[in-house]
Amino acid sequence: MRKLIYKLFSTLGSAEAKRLEAASRNPRAAQLSRLMSIVSRNQGTRFGREHAFRSIRSVSDYQKAVPVRDYEQISPYIDRLVAGESGVLTAERPLMFARTSGTTGSPKYIPITRAYLEEFRRSSVVSGYHTLANFPGIANGVVLSVASPAEEGRTPGGLPYGAISGFLFLHEPLLIRQHISPIPYDVFLIKDWETRYYTLLRLALVLPLSCIYTLNPSTITMLARKLREYGPGLVADIGDGTIRPPARLAPELLRKLSPLLGRERARALELQALLDHENFLPGRIWPTLKVICCWTKAAAAFYLHEFPRLFESIPICDITYGASEGRGTIFLGPNRELLSVRSHFYEFIPEQEIDSQSPTVLLPDQLTPGEKYYILFTTSGGLYRYHINDVVRVTGFHNQTPLIEFQYKGGNISSFTGEKITEPQVTEAMSGALSELGISARYFAVVPEFFPSPHYRLWIEPDWDTALAHRPAAQNDRALIDLAARFDRRLAELNIEYKSKRESMRLDPVVTEIIAPGSYEQLRQALCQRGIADAQIKLSHLQPRGETLKFFQERLIDRSGEPALKA
């Protein structure tokens, strides 16, 4: 049955892939078609009337009628929707609101309509088709996805709000949920953090995983740590046909899971052998695994430094660029992500012009390879010329349509004296420095410090459970001090302005400070308990702000718990 479903999916995906291929040869026409479809359907809305949608006949008309807006500027319209008013942004009533992020500040409520979901799924189907074509071994197993709850609460107007990942997961066809993504949705609703992931792993360990597909790579590394922590108990449960997580499961959930908890002594013996030989790693546990799909850019790239140890040579592919606000790209193959010109309408502003009173606004076919741009979304969900504050880079073209990849959130650039360091630079520098020293870390942050003279502090939570655990404390202290120098050197190689400022002593050397063990996981748990979806936990590695800064600042220690270790 499973292979038949994959074959059917491939057939359906092939048809949409052909339509996208045709559109990529003339993206200007495809984009105009998308824009006019959205505008014409929403002429009678409050927003449509205020912006003369009935008079729009061209892209130029649209750009003159509708100003570029960020969330704060469009939120008065969204607030009306949240309160229950109809016909504000779209003629279609929202199905739900995706409540996004909120890690630093108030949550955003993104309206999700049926038409928007069709746009989103259109991209997903083609990405899935190309992923399967590039990694056909996926068809021999199942996919492990990690979703967040689709409904975390209700708005005053009575509509649900939650995570779009959970909503999409919950509304997959029954055959997909039974045979391709068989972890029951109810598992993602378990409130207790430890129990949720113990239960997820207990079910996954007896499945023939061929693909791990989840947005956040830090979720994957966290699951690997839970495997190590709960390994003996998980293996015992598999051998006994039981489940004994840290907290008791609700009787109703236990009844739902019971058909999946049969005694599998042969599998338990396989896993016990891996435990006995200290090989209880995901790449060994699931020899059927063919690919891992997750974020690989910006802050997320840091967590990939652990993947070679955990997964050995299993390929890692970027899950494509997108957000609750809109889907940006489609996977064509490794390092090839095509702008999804059949989903939404897109505009681009050159990065250096974002603060201009009259910036240049470009359409997809007008972009230049190698250049960076801010991207604007117009979607069937009711976002019009929406400034999501994302910077993307053009990596090339497929036919006449750009290939793009996400770079970083706009504005997160640190510059004391003109060095203008970016998150991708500090992430690459840290990953390289850790690799040189043969150690790993669970989280790090680069924090600017003005006194007594300008310099950067490197906050790091080392992974004491790996290489550091087997070395003398003095050797570890030396390695962590050396880390600052190696990070400093690599950052200078990546940023010539930083190198110049260091050589001229306008910037002092980097200082290393240690974050208390377990802090990163504690913050993730706290954010999840507040209702922030796991995939929305995007902690910056460059000058973290607000709550994140305060949380880690209060947990800076040295090995003995005294004031922080400094280089």
Please, could you describe this protein's structure?
The protein has about 575 residues and is of the alpha/beta class. The chain folds into 3 domains: about 1-115 and about 320-410, no CATH class; about 135-315, no CATH class; about 415-555. About 40% of the residues lie in helices and about 20% in strands. Strands 2-1-5-4 form a 4-stranded mixed β-sheet. Strands 3-6-7-8 form a 4-stranded parallel β-sheet, with no helix packed on it. The N and C termini lie far apart (about 60 Å).
How many separate domains make up the residues?
3
Largest sheet: 4 strands, mixed
What's the tally of helices?
19
The total beta strand count reads 22
Identify the overall geometry: globular
Low-confidence stretches: 559-567
Question: Can you give the helix content as a percent range?
Answer: 25-40%
Q: How would you state the average pLDDT, rounded?
A: 90
Overall SS class = alpha/beta
- Largest sheet, spatial ordering of strands: 2-1-5-4
| Cα-based radius of gyration, to the nearest Å | 24 Å
Strand content: 15-25%
Terminus-to-terminus distance = 59 Å
